[in-house]
Amino acid sequence: MATDRLITTPWSNAYGLARTLVALGTAATLAFSSTSTLFRPVATIGDFPTCNGATSAAVFCLAGDDRTGLTWLKWLCVLALLIVASGWRPRLTALPHAYINYSVFAGISITDGGDQIGLILSMLFVLPALGDPRRWHWLPPPDEAGGKALRVRALIGTSGLIMIRLQMSFVYFNACVAKLPHPEWYDGTAMWYWSTNSSFGAAPWLDTILRPVVSTALGAALMTWLPLFIEIALAAALLLPQRFRYTALWAGLLFHFSIGLVMGLWTFALAMAGGLLVLCLPSGARITRPRTSAATPSTAVRPREVTSL
Q: Where do the segments described as Disordered lie (predicted)?
């Protein structure tokens, strides 16, 4: 006798917001960086885009040596990413989103963690997005009575979101553990070095606030060790009760906002924020407006479910 099982419908506005944040991060990299900055020669490698082997599939290779063509392609990619961020037709924009992120990762001269995590997330978002039947990813999920095809798409989409959760857990675990062998992290001085670094340090207006804090032993230690606690908590988020995941979510968002503010890594901050939503919110949960009752949470935690095969 077959037993019916329930699959959470993955197509919520929370997953949509995550896609939007990742797309905006890549769009910001392209829009606020000049063509000469994105595609400059690199020692021992040569000119960019390199267009050798697998990297020849990047969209920027279509321009060849034409710098004007690179500029046009860059802005076409920005336009496409803004369409992805708008939430229109996830089924149609899923593959272009992943392709553009691959092109950025493979084609620009200097990538950072935001470009890498953006590529991984956009590729995994393909699984739920290709099965998303909505016109906009902000709309409510479809009714449960969608037949076998809907159930199969829901299963595939949920699998993609689970892989994103596991990927994010690994990223945070590695980020924490990789710091521990370095004495600057366990003796509490690392953030003094980072915040006063001429390349990654705070802007002058913010430095006037941070410098007195990191110049004290307690302030430097707290700013160094607190990120480690946040990262290991996020690595273990899947093992925590949901009420603690909400706390970890807000801590993580504040953490990445601070990184963007101090170090200017906004692409990284936006991409990680998108991954955090998938990691910490219940599968299929919708983000809703707060109700009048103080006891009512602002995030719905009753995801829709469809009967499996």
A: 290-309
Residue 283 pairs in a beta bridge with: none
Q: Write out 191-254 in H/E/C secondary structure.
A: HHHHHCCCCCCCCHHHHHHHHHHHCCHHHHHHHHHHHHHHHHHHHCHHHCCHHHHHHHHHHHHH
Q: From residue 48, how far is each of 31, 59, 99 by CA, in Å? A: 18, 12, 18
* Residue given tokens 């602002």 in the structure block: 298
CA–CA separation, 207 and 188 (whole Å): 19
Query: For residue 193, what pLDDT is reported?
Result: 82
Give the position of tokens 């392209």.
30
pTM, two decimals, is 0.87
Render pLDDT for 50-72 as a digit per residue (tens, 0 to 9).
888 888 899 998 987 788 889 99
**Are the beta carbons of 110 and 100 closer than 8 angstroms?**
no
Interior/surface letters 205-217, b for 16+ CB within 10 angstroms, e for the rest: eeeeebeeebeee
Which residues lie below 8 Å from residue 15, measured CB to CB, with a gap of 6+? 125, 128, 137, 161, 277, 278
Distance CA 124, CA 112 (A): 19
- pLDDT tens readout for residues 184-222: 888 888 888 877 776 767 777 777 888 888 888 888 889
Q: How confident is the model at residue 271 (pLDDT cuts 50, 70, 90)?
A: very high
Query: Burial letters for 40-67: b for 16+ Cβ neighbours within 10 Å, e otherwise?
Result: eeeeeeeebbbbeeebeebbbbebeeee
Sorted by sequence, the CB contacts under 8 Å of residue 162 that are 6+ apart come out as 283
CA distance 18 to 31: 20
Task: State the Cα–Cα distance between residues 294 and 157, nearest whole angstrom.
Answer: 34
Q: Which pair of structure tokens corresponds to residue 31?
A: 């829009």
